[in-house]
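Subject: mismatched residue count in predicted assembly?

I count 227 residues in my input, but I want to confirm that the predicted structure covers every chain. Input:
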Amino acid sequence: QKEVEQNSGPLSVPEGAIASLNCTYSDRGSQSFFWYRQYSGKSPELIMFIYSNGDKEDGRFTAQLNKASQYVSLLIRDSQPSDSATYLCAVNIENTGNQFYFGTGTSLTVIP
Amino acid sequence: DTGVSQDPRHKITKRGQNVTFRCDPISEHNRLYWYRQTLGQGPEFLTYFQNEAQLEKSRLLSDRFSAERPKGSFSTLEIQRTEQGDSAMYLCASSLGQGRWTEAFFGQGTRLTVV
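Triage response: the counts match. Full output below for your records.
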């Protein structure tokens, strides 16, 4: 079983809408959770990280973590065409060193 | 530029040749990671350094792959006797290890094509 799973999409939303991206993880030892944005042909860019249960907001982005359900999500409010990219979920698992496990990513397209 | 720097950005090589990539992390970062990414997949962990010590190495990393970080600053990743299956984007990331975890920042990657 993969450590991190994401729906590969593609997910399409109209401009101005809320985009909701989801990620589940298998290891209950997971400690920290990250969302990266990756444009085609480019490297991943860190958007947000979250360590504690609940919501964390940063501008138009909100990360939500539910450790009991082993679920982390990213909401993008007022989606813009420039948000069109692949969004990668990553987790860092205690006692497995310090590597980051990545999902395969969800492709998001924001339609003008 | 104070971000993670990788060189070269692109490399085309013939099968069987050796290649070496370089990564310069963010200067105060003590942790350095190498990942490999193929089209449609998330980054796959290859190896991890804390300062100059290579603390983890994925079983994906065959004997043809070797990585070094001799002075705890820049790192090199060498692939010997390249195969077509080695074609991928090789990503380097660094982080400032404080406590058990911290966020990692990626370089622009080296895209390897083996022909």
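The mean pLDDT of chain A is 91. Marking this ticket as 'not a bug'.
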